[in-house]
C-alpha cells in the first residue's frame, strides 16, 4: 500500500516538474520573441550578383519571386535553411529568399548589386550564422 502511494507521489511530482517547465519555457520564449536567435553553425560565405556570370538567365530574380536586394537577399540550401527565414551574419540580418545550384549544405551566397562587389567580398569560411525568429 505504502509503495503504491509513493509511486503516485512521484508521478505527481514528475507532472509538476513538467508543467512548471512548460510554463517556464513559455514565458521565456515570449520575452525573447524579438531577438530569439538560434546558432546554425559555421558557414562558408560566397557572393553573387544579378549578372549573367553569377545568375545566368535568372538575373536578379530570386527563387521566391522577389527581386534580389543587396543587404537583404541571401541564397541558401533549402534543406539547411528554409526560404523566408531571417538569418543573422556578422550582426546583420538577411532574408533567405534565393537558392543556387552551387549552394549546398553550410554555404550561403550573399547578394550584391554589382559584380565588382562580389569580387571584393570573395570567399569567407568559418563564419558564425544564426537564425532569427
Ligand atoms: Zn556577377
TrEMBL record:
SUPFAM superfamilies: Barwin-like endoglucanases
A GO MF label: hydrolase activity, hydrolyzing O-glycosyl compounds
Alphabetical list of CDD domains matching this protein: 3D_containing_proteins
The organism's place on the tree of life at top rank: Bacteria
GO biological process terms, semicolon-separated: peptidoglycan turnover
InterPro entries noted in UniProt: 3D_dom, 3D_YorM, RlpA-like_sf
Pfam families in alphabetical order: 3D (PF06725)
Gene Ontology CC: outer membrane
Segments crossing the lipid bilayer: none
Keywords: Signal
Location of the 3D domain: 72-132
Region forming the signal peptide: 1-25
Name of this chain's protein: 3D domain-containing protein
